[in-house]
Design goal:
The chain is of the alpha+beta class. It is 54% helix and 20% strand.
């Protein structure tokens, strides 16, 4: 078998598998059957449908190097993963999970500070550039949160002091009231 024929057959086999993957992902979305089962069924149908096709595929498989088999398989699995993940629906959140997610979106992923309270704290400091977040905690009150933030900064004499800020915030991140101590 010539190199050109081998490459053509490998590409054709790849596109047959790719077509099965696409069809299995689509059918999985429509029927809610796991796409791996549908993919196996489609490949089985393609494989056993035509005896001549099966014999040509087996001959090609025996002649193909292990490295080519690996990369074709890897590419097929990669495409399958990308397609099947694109068609999956995100998991539904419970009411409690949605509430926690709504709260946590107003806190910094970097240091945990509340994004609405930090500018208020800095505006009240003698030297806002010296602001250093220490820790933020909150207590969930249902419709509001009681947020406590510990922070460091320099005072009028240049000494580093640790202070706390207390705030009541709504679930949209708006600071309703605050005090510094």
């Amino acid at each position: 078998m010539s190199v050109k024929t081998e490459v053509t057959n490998t590409i054709a086999a790849f596109f047959v598998v790719l077509g099965c993957i696409l069809l299995s992902a689509l059918l999985s979305v429509l029927t809610e059957i796991p796409s791996l089962f549908i993919l196996a069924a489609l490949l089985g149908i393609v494989w056993f449908k035509d005896k001549g096709h099966r014999q040509r595929a087996l001959a090609l498989w025996r002649e193909t190097s292990t490295a080519k088999k690996f990369w074709v398989g890897f590419a097929a699995l990669l495409v399958y993963g990308m397609i099947s993940s694109a068609f999956q629906e995100p998991p539904q959140l419970t009411a409690e999970q949605a509430h926690v997610q709504r709260i946590e979106q107003h806190f910094s992923k970097w240091d945990g500070s509340h994004e609405g309270l930090t500018p208020i704290i800095k505006a009240s400091m003698h030297n806002p550039e010296s602001y250093e977040h220490v820790k933020t905690t909150y207590v969930d009150g249902g419709e509001t949160l009681q947020v406590t933030t510990a922070f460091r900064g320099t005072n009028a004499f240049g000494a580093v002091v640790t202070q706390s800020a207390y705030a009541v915030v709504d679930l949209n991140g708006n600071v309703l009231s605050h005090s510094l101590q």
